[in-house]
Amino acid sequence: MRILSGMRPTGRLHIGHLSVLENWVRLQEENECFYFISDWHALTTGYDNTAELQENVRAMLLDWLGAGLDPERSTIFVQSHVKEHAELHLLFSMFTPLSWLERVPTYKDQIQQLGKEGKDVSTYGFLGYPLLMAADILIYLADGVPVGEDQLPHLEFCREVARRFNYLYKTSLFPEPQALLAKVAMLPGIDGRKMSKSYHNDIPMSAAPEEVWERVRLMVTDPARIHKTDPGHPEVCLVHRYHEIYNGEEVEETRVSCRGGRIGCVPCKKRLAEKINAFLEPVRERRARWAARPELVDEILAAGAAKARATAGRTMAMVREAMGV
pTM for the whole thing? Predict the structure, then answer.
């Protein structure tokens, strides 16, 4: 099966991204995988501030390699290094009804949300990003796309574009890619909200042990517990939620000790920080090894772009023939 997925380089990845990357690593074992850093998609909302874009691209690649993506098994590249994405997006735009783009469920919601944040995204780039996403997927004739449930409308839009192209030009060139829904743990931020760099409530994948402890130390806990000997309520404690994910072998003991007032919040947090650090240590080590060899990182991107361009070029030759251009 051919797999395609990507991420926008908007800053350091956090531990909430690890479950997604772990799924990518599993998929590369038995499939032909294309994973790309979608720098053009980052421009749809960050077009006015690109000073850190190249730095973010580099940091994201190192995070991917740290998580275990293997450039020998997966094609890893930067979206803008394969100009065929833009060409296919342009050709798709010639026959895609405007109403299709306007009805994408996330479009109006994000317009309103970003507008409240003072961001003007009333641009074609933002309106058309689902079509660029469709071009990203279809140019590799991908069979499967790892997505979360919130991305399902975008994938259905992609299938509609594939069907319309095949119908208009009397071909069966484009497959209708299927969603590969993985059980991805939704990890809240240290304040209980969605984990996000913009909220300053994240734990970066590349965080040093000291930074991990500082983030865990700030986690919200049971508001009803005043003294460490007070009975706790782990079901409402964010720290306990993290213990369930990173400290499964001790979670029951921690739960019982919390309810019985036998462990305070600070020792509980320190134990959690130890477990998170143990989990992240191999990720940090792999990342550091790659970061120490920048020339190899450059080679990965160059080789990945060359392979991606070759595949995308074959698709575009068939697209041009079908469309007569």
Answer: 0.92
